[in-house]
Amino acid sequence: MSEPRFHAVADLDSLPLGQGRTVQVGNRRFALWNIEGQFYAIDDDCPHRGGPLGAGILQDGRIHCPLHGWAFDPKTGAGFSNPAKPVNCYPTKVEQGQVWIAF
Predict the structure, then answer these.
(1) 3, 29, 30, 86, 103 from 26: Cα distances, Å
(2) Phi-psi region at 97: left, alpha or beta (left = phi > 0; alpha = psi -120 to 50)
């Protein structure tokens, strides 16, 4: 398996505090969130019904799927609604005014 590479996905200023959105690199989609100035990237598709986690709701540090409310920890990917169905997390960095995701 090849070493993960960082990909620029968003301008730093385009994602305000407490907001998330879906970003795409090639055919892959990620939910990117700015939580207290830290950027977190997880799979965009909720494992329940495929809801877009980038369009979810941030509440108490958890990202809730906009379709059925399943909750996830953006730092670890742990599923609170169903612990057997977590989402993947991806390293992020901020460099040259861009947010980058490694995968």
Answers:
(1) 17, 8, 11, 23, 12
(2) left
- Across the chain, mean pLDDT equals 96
Q: What radius of gyration do the chain's Cα atoms show?
A: 13
Query: pTM higher than 0.85 for the full model?
Result: yes
Residues 9-26: pLDDT tens digits? 999 999 999 999 999 999
CATH number of the domain encompassing residue 78: 2.102.10.10
In terms of residue numbers, what domain contains 78? 6-102
For residue 52, which of 76, 34, 33, 26 has the smallest C-alpha distance? 33
The tokens for 51 are 């809801």
Q: Is residue 27 part of a domain?
A: yes
Task: Work out the end-to-end distance of the chain between its first and last CA atoms, rounded to an integer number of angstroms.
Answer: 11
